[in-house]
Amino acid sequence: xxxxxxxxxxxxxxxxxxxxxxxxxxxxxxxxxxxxxxxxxxxxxxxxxxxxxxxxxxxxxxxxxxxxxxxxxxxxxxxxxxxxxxxxxxxxxxxxxxxxxxxxxxxxxxxxxxxxxxxxxxxxxxxxxxxxxxxxxxxxxxxxxxxxxxxxxxxxxxxxxxxxxxxxxxxxxxxxxxxxxxxxxxxxxxxxxxxxxxxxxxxxxxxxxxxxxxxxxxxxxxxxxxxxxxxxxxxxxxxxxxxxxxxxxxxxxxxxxxxx
Amino acid sequence: xxxxxxxxxxxxxxxxxxxxxxxxxxxxxxxxxxxxxxxxxxxxxxxxxxxxxxxxxxxxxxxxxxxxxxxxxxxxxxxxxxxxxxxxxxxxxxxxxxxxxxxxxxxxxxxxxxxxxxxxxxxxxxxxxxxxxxxxxxxxxxxxxxxxxxxxxxxxxxxxxxxxxxxxxxxxxxxxxxxxxxxxxxxxxxxxxxxxxxxxxxxxxxxxxxxxxxxxxxxxxxxxxxxxxxxxxxxxxxxxxxxxxxxxxxxxxxxxxxxxxxxxxxxxxxxxxxxxxxxxxxxxx
Amino acid sequence: xxxxxxxxxxxxxxxxxxxxxxxxxxxxxxxxxxxxxxxxxxxxxxxxxxxxxxxxxxxxxxxxxxxxxxxxxxxxxxxxxxxxxxxxxxxxxxxxxxxxxxxxxxxxxxxxxxxxxxxxxxxxxxxxxxxxxxxxxxxxxxxxxxxxxxxxxxxxxxxxxxxxxxxxxxxxxxxxxxxxxxxxxxxxxxxxxxxxxxxxxxxxxxxxxxxxxxxxxxxxxxxxxxxxxxxxxxxxxxxxxxxxxxxxxxxxxxxxxxxxxxxxxxxxxxxxxxxxxxxxxxxxxxxxxxxxxxxxxxxxxxxxxxxxxx
Lengths: 260, 285, 310
Fold this sequence. Notes:
The complex is a heterotrimer. Chain A is of the alpha/beta class. Chain A has one domain: P-loop containing nucleotide triphosphate hydrolases (Rossmann fold, 3-Layer(aba) Sandwich), CATH 3.40.50.300. In chain A, 36% of the residues lie in helices and 24% in strands. In chain A, the strands form two sheets. Chain A has a six-stranded mixed sheet, sandwiched between helices. In chain A, α3 (110-120) crosses α4. The model of chain A is unreliable at 1-8 (pLDDT under 50). By secondary structure, chain B is α/β, with parallel strands linked by helices. Chain B has a domain at 1-85 and 211-285: Rossmann fold. Chain B has eleven helices and eleven strands. In chain B, strands 7-8-9-3-10-11 form a six-stranded mixed sheet, with helices on both faces. In chain B, α4 (109-120) packs across α5, α4 packs parallel to α7 (157-169) and α5 (125-138) crosses α7 (157-169). Chain B is globular. By secondary structure, chain C is an all-alpha fold. The longest helix of chain C has 37 residues, at 99-135. Chain C is flat, with a radius of gyration of 23 Å. The two termini of chain C are 16 Å apart. Classes of the chains: A alpha/beta, B alpha/beta, C mainly alpha.
């Protein structure tokens, strides 16, 4: 059940003793302190925590959007460099951001967003691929030439997912992909993500503050508090509300308290 | 209802746009007694516009139309902006989603609370301060003396929202409109803030309009729930009986939420029936 | 609002442009332009400014047809005639040249200066500002201190120094004005870049392996350009005034060229007895400056996303 931290076991993502900080000198602020985690290939792994727990920072460090970190991050057994990522990395790992209103360029049409992405990854049959990508995220060709302001939040998030799928990655980093959406739209997007995962055999590393969402999507869950993982548990344990750490228990109680 | 604090009939909120007039709220009626009324709906359902319309806070060029809009004996439809300023605060207060944007960043908590009090009543600075301390105590702030001296950026989100509640309740309003008061807060703080708000509203016998997208939250903290869709009320029910709701939209919303204890392979997806838009509004009076 | 009541919209060009679901790249682009045009058209003052500008552009284009006299021909017998004199609507100057014809030809020079400056200065500012903003670190420090040096001089004085070094003449005046006008644009572009740089859509394209050049030119520039266009339009008045000022000081266009500033300068000597010689070109400068300002205000309403979000 519980995930042993075997240093020699290689998963899709291996993180060992990750520290991330912001600012320099006296203003230096540790956002992530000594995080270890292993995501197996094909697994859906959830990182849960409240704002400021450092959960999104872990994703950003993997993606190379934060450069001030140390420790080791390995993707597919290959250790990543401190700065910069290779083309091959971006073909393996992609990310979906929290706010679909902020993650699409306001002056670019869907066609341009996807076209540019495909072009950057060196695909040649761009037209056909755009059509296929839009189909796979449940948007028809009618959306192809729209600007973001002509799309709803859910449709934008579908475009963002299509963009992440464009290079045919094996791993998706999902940073609160539905927290800016209405529940009915959230259900659609979560279903889409589940379908895509089983179709394409994707590995997910998903960050969320919503235990319900993580419980629905993930098999393995780590709870973060103030930059540290305080507990790691399987989804079955979580559903049985069997938490060992008092903070996890508190989170479970509060999110269930709102439902009951 | 014998003790009606607010009575609204056929309320419309309209925004002129390039392609004609956009109706954000389309003819809803509701009344509020000394109770907790929840208004739930998704983004764009018009729930926030309803809350703002009651206090005439709709930004230009938007405008409000209604057959009747009476708050505690005052006709809001004919009230001037000056009348409204007196009403806001003394009769009805509003709590917004994010305390970061509602508190003035360059004034200390004390300055803001004292100002809130002195604009509505003739009280001395010292008395205002004592009442501010009492209110902070009432919203479970542990060291009110210290908190009074803080600036908004020095307090956490949860504390900020509790300060907002304290500030809004100082002039002793009869109606509190809370628009997603906890959506910007972490789950573990949400409950605490809601419980404090709930207790104050109950103890003072106020009327509460609780606007939220979260059905379960509303079911917990309200007596009556009005479900809004596309600017209309599609269903009104007792909060306790929300889970027996009939309207497919309400049912769809309830079922779309992933439930930790009752996992499902796939989440239920809401099929929107175009007829829902056209069905006349249900009255919540 | 008038376009709605049509119950069965014919698939005309208006519907094609106003659609929410464009079917091709071209239609999407055209629709975006059309929406901007509709917003601009709704702004009466901006439309007024645009009309004045169009009128001036037409005057400049058709100057040879509209002019009643040769702007360079001197007629000492008809010097300093008041406006309304036979054959001279706006009167004549000290050398007996027709002020009306000179104004028309002068519009060409003014618009030429404006067009050149509007091309050079913002482009320079955009490049420097976005590089500084996107690169950050020491690049930012060096480039921004460099702009600070330019900002530390009064604009006209700096332009004077450049013209003095380069020699008098319109092209050099344009160059001098451009060199003094770019720092504010660099500032704006840098400020915009700093906010854009940390947005998720830039992160997203970085995760596709896009390099800094592509990100700056394809993703940052399109978003900076609208605020620059606004600022340039509002600055046009100042640029024309600087050009006129250089002309007035004898460092811009050289006589007998009918540049408006130079015309005011020539009229200065007679201002007490023959007011029209300086006043009429002055009014022309005023009109073009005002037109640009009004248009700039209108463009701000249309282009600034902060204002126009519904």
